[in-house]
């Protein structure tokens, strides 16, 4: 097998490691490309391409994350990772860990960890690497990596959300929710929300938001949906149900099919606990051509005004 063939076989794993460390599709793709360039330039073939390439992509990702954290500290409003529509790496034996680790909620929790803790957690807890491999990847002793893993697990367990185990039930509830959205059935939407549901938006200061971007409570969220749903449908907007970061979600598009935002739903006990929407256009380019959210909002507001006038 050639180096190129070895690398292509491992590309899904390398991207999935980098994305979980970085929370960015574009930065993960860049890290994978840089890994290939280093592998191509290496004078010798490693005994294990998987171990070598995983270590290289991890080190690159740690360095990128250290600089990214400075930018994120100055980020405007809530921060979410770039939405991931499909995780390219599949491992039936670790499917539960993989699905949980890529959720919006889990990736936001990972932001609490130091870059080294995050890398160790991803390699050890998500992908099941041995501590010897983890130590080689992050440049620390096995003992130090065990301590980093303990700290990381503790931080993650303290804030980890508990989602329903039955994926089919989650999908069915999400289907009902987005069907109600498409039909403008506000009562149907309201009955699926938890009492303390959170509607949180990441606009990065580059897209229209409601206040601080965070709305709490079924009544408040329902009122926002009531203001958004009819005019969005009236101006030709569409809702495309889609897995987002391993959980039920949707892509919102304008009449031309351009991406307005993505939604990801956190579901527990038969109710939607959180709706996480990414509006920042810088985070949506990999999903498809990006709409002008400000123009969509202006048209929706004008349409809402016309609707209210016609009803009065």
UniProtKB/TrEMBL annotation:
Coiled coil: none annotated. Residues 105-156 form the RNA polymerase sigma factor 70 region 4 type domain. Keywords: Sigma factor, Transcription, Transcription regulation. Residues 7-69 form the RNA polymerase sigma-70 region domain. Gene3D superfamilies: 1.10.1740.10, 3.10.450.50, Winged helix-like DNA-binding domain superfamily/Winged helix DNA-binding domain. Pfam families: Sigma70_r2, Sigma70_r4_2. Interacts transiently with the RNA polymerase catalytic core formed by RpoA, RpoB, RpoC and RpoZ (2 alpha, 1 beta, 1 beta' and 1 omega subunit) to form the RNA polymerase holoenzyme that can initiate transcription. Belongs to the sigma-70 factor family. ECF subfamily. NCBIfam families: PRK09636.1 (NF007214), sigma70-ECF (TIGR02937), SigX4 (TIGR02957). This is RNA polymerase sigma-70 factor.
């Amino acid at each position: 097998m050639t180096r190129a063939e070895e690398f292509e076989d491992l590309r899904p794993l390398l991207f999935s490691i980098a994305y979980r460390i970085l929370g960015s599709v574009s930065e993960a793709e860049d890290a994978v490309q840089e890994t290939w360039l280093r592998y191509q330039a290496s004078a010798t073939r490693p005994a294990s391409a998987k171990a070598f390439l995983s270590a290289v992509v991890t080190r690159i990702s740690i360095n990128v994350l250290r600089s990214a954290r400075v930018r994120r500290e100055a980020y405007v409003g809530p921060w979410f990772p770039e939405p991931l529509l499909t995780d390219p790496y599949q491992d039936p034996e670790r499917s539960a860990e993989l699905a949980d680790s890529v959720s919006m909620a889990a990736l936001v929790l990972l932001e609490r960890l130091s870059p080294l803790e995050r890398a160790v957690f991803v390699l050890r807890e998500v992908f099941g690497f041995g501590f010897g491999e983890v130590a080689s990847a992050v440049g620390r002793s096995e003992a130090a990596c065990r301590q980093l893993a303990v700290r990381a697990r503790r931080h993650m367990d303290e804030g980890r959300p508990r989602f329903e185990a039955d994926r089919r039930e989650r999908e069915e509830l999400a289907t009902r929710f987005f069907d109600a959205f498409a039909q403008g059935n506000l009562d149907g939407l309201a009955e699926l929300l938890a009492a303390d549901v959170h509607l949180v938006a990441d606009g990065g200061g580059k897209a229209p938001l409601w206040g601080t971007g965070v709305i709490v409570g079924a009544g408040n969220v329902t009122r926002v949906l009531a203001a958004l749903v009819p005019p969005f449908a009236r101006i030709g907007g569409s809702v495309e149900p889609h897995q987002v970061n391993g959980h039920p979600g949707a892509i919102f598009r304008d009449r031309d099919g351009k991406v307005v935002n993505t939604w990801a739903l956190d579901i527990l006990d038969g109710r939607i606990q959180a709706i996480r929407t990414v509006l920042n256009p810088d985070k949506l380019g990999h999903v498809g051509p990006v709409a002008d959210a400000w123009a969509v909002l202006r048209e929706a507001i004008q349409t809402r005004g016309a609707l209210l006038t016609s009803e009065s």
